[in-house]
Design the sequence.
């Protein structure tokens, strides 16, 4: 399994799709061998990516409501910053942030960080 | 002991305020009778504009209702006009010929609108803008559409124009002077105001001299001096007011422009006092509410034999047109011995006028938050030389370090006026909060009157509450929907209708949302309000739905979903059960459970399998059970008269009919029904949102039950004889809840808030209202009854159910 993954992640960045594939104020899931990644698109078209797990009870953040540069977890309404992964006070915690690059409308994720546990 | 008799002529805001001060000081000092030429109680005349625009209702602007008069032992004679005062006999005569004697008399006859005697001024369709009758006439005209011409570009004229525009009319404002509101604004601010008014689609013609009003039997147009003609069906004259002093003059009291009063608000007859727009004090007549209230305070003391001193008022003006921020105070005319400080930014204009290092006038447009502070400086007459450089930037810069808003309010001096309308200063508010242990805005309004009139100082009062109570102050009486807005749910809904807002961005723009795209609390609520208000027109915004409603299944703690197909009234068939069993096998669904609502729940379905699961269930004729929806969930039934030896009616059949009628409807929160065939109530109908208990003589309709976090038995709405009427009433009840319920507010909480009696009156007693509600419900259902599962099987929102990519699995066996 390790072997396979090293092959897959020879590049630091992997293309996963287009900005248009993600609904505005919405999210899509990228399945990865290191766990699901949620890719978000804000109203201003900024794209973010987080590990698809709320630091609270592992709720799938991809299913939450996106507002500003935050997402509200669908399970217990924790609010998570898309930029830093930090949970908005008074709760505490941090979801893993994945690097995102958008070039000519194409989204790439920084998968190099994934193997390290992101 | 017989009490002295006080007669009050006129029942406007000034008179009402005198009585309040009087009763506050001594409840039993007088036996009071009030004569009101209008057939109404006392209402807040400065709030007529929101009534015209549709942002408020008449009931919202009442100051004193009938109960208040009763509670205070005041005899209110509505529709009684006083026509003569006999000062020798100390008595007044009404139009009907009744004679009432007095010990003390208060004249508060207010003012009359000025009507320019143009040719055609008496035609039907020419109205003033003064009282509720005028507003009703304007609304009636607006309902027919067409163009309105407003003569007069002052405060009232512009508010009338904005209101008529919101009521759907085309509007032209004719103003004699070169710029709008020239008495309150300088030309620069007048220009910005004109641009803002024009941006609302209102035509503004300045330097317009009206020549004649045209029409034979009613208004058809207006002709200007330059020959231009403007077609219109309504002319509103808003050119000013004139003190109403005929009664006083004929009684031989001294009058000039108004009824002359001394500093204690006494007329030339020591037993007769006068307040309000009808008086002239030290050469001044006033048309704004704050001076009237200052006068009322003094007059009340005078009546009690302890004369106070009214010194005249410095006035401040605010325009009550939603979305236009404008403030002016004091004297801002140019003169040689004055200096001015001006600040401009896009859409913002501020000008301060100083004389001998004292602030004497201020005009603010676009940013008015510091208006109160400037007004305070003007009234205080303090030297401002030390902070002159930063004065224009307002309070937070003029002192030392910038303050946050609450700290800035906390830093105000005790005599800083907070509520201009009612002349309430900071010290009084803080003192009352502390002394009476007040905890919310409503209580502060009740006890101090602060923010109880035009309401524009509400944020200041709330900050005072926050500053005084600290952490103990948690929420306003009108809870804002969320941190994105200061408006409560009801206000937002009313404004959606009044302004015809049909999308979430439109709501956020027009109602001044503080965030760019809302939050997880307001967006789902707005989405629901828009769906409810504009069926067939509003496009559902799936990104403003909670996940369950977005993917039409219930998310579970591990991120899988549960699927519940509809079983009408709890009925199923062998074929349906077989299809469910096959689906469970095919998709390895780990848990199959019978729900409390008489149907079957398939738990642990993976998100990507949902469309395929639905496709298989759909082939067997099943649709979504909406077990996830803020909408109709289940209709639980017992077997009823078809099988049960105790059954009185066909409860199962009725349940199926109700579910077929109501499925697909969205509501503020979930709606669960129950229909029991006899009072043994096996379907547990008496703890449902809406329930029916069948009896021999018909159908007992229940509502407002709950069996969740709160357990509450239902209340009986009514008993009807036929199944058809049962269905009709339940649909109407549901629609009323859909229209009035706040998002996430269950039926029992809604009923608790608005009152069971009001609901009963609307859906049971008022047949016409019931029919209208039913019609709206049925209309909405023609758009709502689309099976969301079938749509998604066909490919709608496919992106929801498939991952965007899979990475790192290269060549790895699945």
Sequence:
């Amino acid at each position: 399994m390790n072997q396979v993954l090293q092959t897959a992640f020879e590049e630091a960045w992997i293309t996963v799709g287009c900005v248009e594939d993600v609904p505005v104020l919405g999210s899509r899931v990228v399945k990865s061998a290191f766990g699901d990644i949620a890719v978000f698109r804000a109203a201003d078209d900024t794209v973010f990516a987080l590990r698809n797990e709320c630091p609270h009870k592992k709720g799938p953040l991809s299913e939450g409501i996106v507002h500003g540069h935050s997402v509200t977890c669908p399970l217990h309404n924790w609010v998570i910053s898309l930029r830093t992964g930090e949970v908005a006070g008074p709760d505490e915690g941090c979801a893993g942030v994945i690097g995102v690059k958008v070039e000519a409308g194409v989204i790439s994720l920084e998968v190099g960080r994934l193997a390290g546990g992101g | 002991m017989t009490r002295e008799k006080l007669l009050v002529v006129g029942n406007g805001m000034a008179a009402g305020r005198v009585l309040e001060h009087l009763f506050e000081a001594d409840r039993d000092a007088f036996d009071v009778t009030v004569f009101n030429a209008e057939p109404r109680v006392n209402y807040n005349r400065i709030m007529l504009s929101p009534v015209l625009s549709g942002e408020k209702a008449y009931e919202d602007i009442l100051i004193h209702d009938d109960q208040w008069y009763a509670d205070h032992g005041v005899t209110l004679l509505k529709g009684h006009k006083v026509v003569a005062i006999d000062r020798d006999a100390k008595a007044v005569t009404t139009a009907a010929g009744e004679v009432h004697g007095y010990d003390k008399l208060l004249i508060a006859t207010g003012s009359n609108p000025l009507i320019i005697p143009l040719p055609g001024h008496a035609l039907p369709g020419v109205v003033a803008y003064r009282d509720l009758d005028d507003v009703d006439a304007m609304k009636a005209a607006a309902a027919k559409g067409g163009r309105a011409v407003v003569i007069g570009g002052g405060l009232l004229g512009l508010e009338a124009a904005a209101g008529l525009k919101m009521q759907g009319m085309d509007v032209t404002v004719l103003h004699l002077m070169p710029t709008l509101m020239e008495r309150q604004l300088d030309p620069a601010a007048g220009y910005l105001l004109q641009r803002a008014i024009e941006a609302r689609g209102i035509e503004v013609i300045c330097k317009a001299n009206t020549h004649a009003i045209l029409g034979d039997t009613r208004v058809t147009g207006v002709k200007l001096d330059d020959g231009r003609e403007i077609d219109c069906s309504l002319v509103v004259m808003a050119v000013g007011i004139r003190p109403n002093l005929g009664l006083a003059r004929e009684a031989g009291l001294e009058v000039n422009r108004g009824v002359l009063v001394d500093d204690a608000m006494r007329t030339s007859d020591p037993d007769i006092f006068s307040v309000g727009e009808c008086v002239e004090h030290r050469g001044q007549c006033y048309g704004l509410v704050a001076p009237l209230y200052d006068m009322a305070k003094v007059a009340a003391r005078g009546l009690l034999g302890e004369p106070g001193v009214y010194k005249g008022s410095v006035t401040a003006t605010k325009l009550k047109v939603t979305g236009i921020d404008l403030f002016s105070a004091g004297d801002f005319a140019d003169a040689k011995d004055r200096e001015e400080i001006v600040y401009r930014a896009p859409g913002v204009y501020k000008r301060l006028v100083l004389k001998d290092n004292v602030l004497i006038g201020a005009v603010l447009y676009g940013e008015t938050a510091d208006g109160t502070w400037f007004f305070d400086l003007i009234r205080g007459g303090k030297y401002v030389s030390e902070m002159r450089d930063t004065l224009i930037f307002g309070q937070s810069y003029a002192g030392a370090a910038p303050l946050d808003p609450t700290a800035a309010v906390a830093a105000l001096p005790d005599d800083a006026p907070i509520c201009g309308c009612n002349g309430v200063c900071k010290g009084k508010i803080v003192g009352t909060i502390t002394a009476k242990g007040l905890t919310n805005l409503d209580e502060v309004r009740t006890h101090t009157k602060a923010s109880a009139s035009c309401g524009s100082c509400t944020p200041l009062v709330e900050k005072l509450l926050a500053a005084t109570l600290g952490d103990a102050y948690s929420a306003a009486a009108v809870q804002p929907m969320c941190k994105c807005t200061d408006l409560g749910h009801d206000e937002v809904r009313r404004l959606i209708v009044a302004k015809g807002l049909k999308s979430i961005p439109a709501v956020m723009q027009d109602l001044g949302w503080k965030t760019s795209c809302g939050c997880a609390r307001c967006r789902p609520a707005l989405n629901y309000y828009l769906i409810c208000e504009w069926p067939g027109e509003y496009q559902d915004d799936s990104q403003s739905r909670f996940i369950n409603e977005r993917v039409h299944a219930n998310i579970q703690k591990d991120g899988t979903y549960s699927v519940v197909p509809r079983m009408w009234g709890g009925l199923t068939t062998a074929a349906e059960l077989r299809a469910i069993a096959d689906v469970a096998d095919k998709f390895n669904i780990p848990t199959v459970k019978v729900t409390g609502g008489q149907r079957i729940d398939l738990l642990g379905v993976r998100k990507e399998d949902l469309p395929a699961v639905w496709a298989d269930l759909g082939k067997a004729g099943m649709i979504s059970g909406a077990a996830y929806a803020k909408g109709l969930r289940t209709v639980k039934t017992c077997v009823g008269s078809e099988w049960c030896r105790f059954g009185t009616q066909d409860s199962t059949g009725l349940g199926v009919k109700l579910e077929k009628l109501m499925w697909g409807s969205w509501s503020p929160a979930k709606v669960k029904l129950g229909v029991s065939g006899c009072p043994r109530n096996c379907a547990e109908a008496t703890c449902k949102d809406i329930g029916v208990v069948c009896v021999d003589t018909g159908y007992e309709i229940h509502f407002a039950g709950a069996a969740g976090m709160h357990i509450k038995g239902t209340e009986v709405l009514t008993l009807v004889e036929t199944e058809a009427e049962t269905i009709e009433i339940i649909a109407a009840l549901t629609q009323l809840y859909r229209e009035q319920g706040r998002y996430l507010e269950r039926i029992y909480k809604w009923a608790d808030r608005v009152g069971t009696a009001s609901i009963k009156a609307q859906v049971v007693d008022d047949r016409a209202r019931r029919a209208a509600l039913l019609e709206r419900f049925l209309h909405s259902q023609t758009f709502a009854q689309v099976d969301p599962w079938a749509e998604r099987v066909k490919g709608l929102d496919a992106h929801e159910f498939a991952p965007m990519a899979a990475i790192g699995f290269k060549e790895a066996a699945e």
